[in-house]
Design brief:
- The protein is mostly helical.
- It has one domain.
- The protein is built from eight helices and two strands.
Length: 255
C-alpha cells in the first residue's frame, strides 16, 4: 500500500519526469499528432503505474538543491533512453527522406506547426514504423523496460558519466545503415530509370526527357516502393526486435 506523503509525491514526480522526457522523444508516444496535455497525463499515469508495479523506496530528502539535482538526473535518464529508442524510428525517417528525394517527391512537404517541414514519404514512413512498433508489442515491452530501470536505477541515482559512448555510436551506425537498406530497392530503381532516360536522350534527342523523366521517375519509385513494402516490413520488424532488446539491455544495465 502506497501512502501519499511528501516523500511519495516527490518520488512519483521524479518518475514522471523520467517518463515524460522519455515519451517526448519517442514518435510512437510523443508524436506531433498527440497534444502536449495528453503527454503530461500519460506520463503521470505511467508514473503511478510504475510505482504500483515496482517497489520503489520513497526519496528521503527535503533539500531543494538535492531535489533539483535528482530531477535533472531523471530528465537526463529519460532523455538518453528516449534518444536511443528514437534512433529506431529515425532509421525509417531517413529511408523516407531518401526515397522522397530519389523519386522526385522531395518537393512535396507537409507543414506541421510542431515540427519543421518534412517530406510526405518521411511522415508516412514514421507512421508506418509507429504502427508496426505498436503491433509488435513495443509499448508493453518499453513499459516493462522502464519498470526494470527503476529497479536497477532508482530515482535520483543515475550517473551520466557511467555510460559507454560506444553504445551510442553503435545505435547511430545501425540506425543510419538500416535506413539506407530499407530505401535500397527504390534507390536502385531510380538509378536504373535515370540510366535508361540518359540512353534514350542520347539516341533519340527529339524526345524531351525532362518532361517525361519526372512523372516516370515518380511512377517507378511508387510502384517499386509498393511492391517492396512486404519485404521492408519483414526486415524492419526483425530490426525492431533486435533494437528493442538492445534498448532493454541498456535501461537495465545503465546503473
Amino acid at each position: 500500500m502506497i501512502v501519499l506523503d511528501v516523500h511519495t509525491v516527490l518520488t512519483v514526480s521524479l518518475i514522471a519526469l523520467r517518463v515524460f522526457s522519455f515519451v517526448v522523444l519517442v514518435p510512437a508516444f510523443g508524436t506531433f499528432f498527440i497534444p502536449g496535455s495528453v503527454r503530461v497525463f500519460l506520463s503521470l499515469g505511467l508514473a503511478f503505474s510504475l510505482m504500483f508495479l515496482v517497489k520503489v523506496d520513497p526519496v528521503n530528502t527535503t533539500s531543494l538543491p538535492e531535489i533539483l539535482a535528482m530531477a535533472l538526473q531523471e530528465v537526463l535518464f529519460g532523455f538518453t533512453a528516449g534518444f536511443l529508442l528514437r534512433l529506431l524510428f529515425d532509421a525509417v525517417l531517413v529511408a523516407g527522406e531518401i526515397i522522397a528525394v530519389h523519386t522526385g517527391l522531395g518537393f512535396l512537404t507537409m507543414f506541421l506547426p510542431q515540427q519543421p517541414q518534412a517530406t510526405v514519404m518521411a511522415g508516412f514512413s514514421t507512421l508506418l514504423a509507429s504502427t508496426l512498433f505498436l503491433t509488435l508489442g513495443g509499448a508493453e515491452t518499453v513499459f516493462l523496460g522502464l519498470a526494470e530501470s527503476l529497479k536497477r536505477v532508482p530515482p535520483g541515482s543515475f550517473d551520466l558519466y557511467s555510460l559507454d559512448g560506444e553504445v551510442f555510436l553503435k545505435f547511430f551506425y545501425e540506425s543510419f545503415s538500416m535506413g539506407v537498406k530499407i530505401a535500397l530497392p527504390v534507390l536502385i530503381a531510380a538509378l536504373l530509370t535515370n540510366v535508361i532516360l540518359a540512353v534514350v536522350n542520347r539516341f533519340i534527342p527529339q524526345i524531351n526527357v525532362f518532361m517525361v523523366g519526372l512523372p516516370l521517375q515518380i511512377a517507378v519509385g511508387l510502384v517499386v516502393f509498393a511492391l517492396s513494402l512486404p519485404v521492408m516490413g519483414f526486415v524492419l520488424a526483425s530490426y525492431m526486435r533486435d533494437h528493442i532488446l538492445d534498448f532493454l539491455r541498456f535501461v537495465s544495465l545503465s546503473g
